[in-house]
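If your schedule permits, I should be very grateful for your opinion on a structural question. Please examine both parts with care and let me know of anything in them that strikes you as inconsistent. The record follows directly beneath this note:
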Amino acid sequence: MGFRANLALKLGALSNPQYRRYWLGSLGSVGAIQIATMAQGWLIVDKLGGSPLAVGFLGAATAIPTILVNLFGGVLADRVDRRKLIMSVSAASSLLLLLLAILDSTDTIKIWHVVAIASVQGLVMGFDGPVRSSYFPLLIHRSQMMSAVALGSVMWQFSRLVTPIAGGFLIRYGGTESVFFVGVLGWVSMLLVMISLRVKSPPPDKTRNVVQDMVEGVKFVLSRRDFVLLISLTYVTHFFGMQYMQLMPFFVQRFDVGSAGYGTMFSTIGLGALTGTLVVGRIRNHPKVGYIMLGGSLTFTVAIMAFAFAPNFLMALVFLYIAGLANTIYFVVAMTVLQLRVPERMRGRVMGVYTITFSLIPLGGLMGGVLASIYDERIAVFVGAAILLSIFVIVGVTQPIIRNLNGMQLSDS
């Protein structure tokens, strides 16, 4: 094997210059998403004195518009130049964060401002998820799909590792407004990268109208049992399992660790998830990858239940690390199966259905906020994780199509 071929094998999708540039730009925008979300929660709780219910409303304001737009966003991703759509999303996101930063820095910010801007950002994100997920396959060879999906996970997890520390530092010394200004730079970097790329989407079939395309996409997903199960499990994981992320400011108050501790907790999740991505690289071709995937999800739920009642800050970090590691195994395998098995002409619409899942984190936060306001944040997180545990046990026992996934045949339909 020649040097170049060997290097390409080691680098995977990063050996492709266009994908490498896209990945670096995406790292900036993903960092902007992560750091802004973190700062919004801190702004409402610490600076504006908001309640758990207020944090829940923030989550709902972000999630509901995204869910409403996701399916249409998927259709649009199959009908227009995906590159230009990503550019539009990046520009709009930059302006929204800039507005939030200005309101915060001038001390005119109110809770309703944060919620209103989050709801508009939610509309924009309804286009972002489907178009990102359907664009990156255009930049790589099919043989690099698992690598690209894993690198996408690395991007998110590295961001989760670094941005909370940076965000905690910025909040402490520059206030939440400085975080929002940094977020603007992240989105601008993505915009500049997309301007530099020249890979265009394949020409769409314009003989059908938007409603027909939307219906066709939903019907396709429903016709595939593997798609229905994998997407549904992703939905419930984000809704029930990720409530701890929305309620994290209250655990920070419970442990009395301040903004630095807030950043450390999110970074620990990111470190665990980054480790999980490396683990997936080793087990991705395992014939029992379905069992490993389900085992990771079960481990995740148990770790979150333990985190809810961790006796001290150090133990909380241990459980968060385990949760981040275990949960990543499920997501990388599930996303790879979907990307390999979806036809190119349906990719945007299927990803539109799939990426609804990311909106379920803040929506689940609304449920968690209600439970936390009645009881406390520990009960809320424990109940959500316990429900998720039950769902994965039932699916693992009753659905052989999931537990029998073979890592050597992930593209088999």
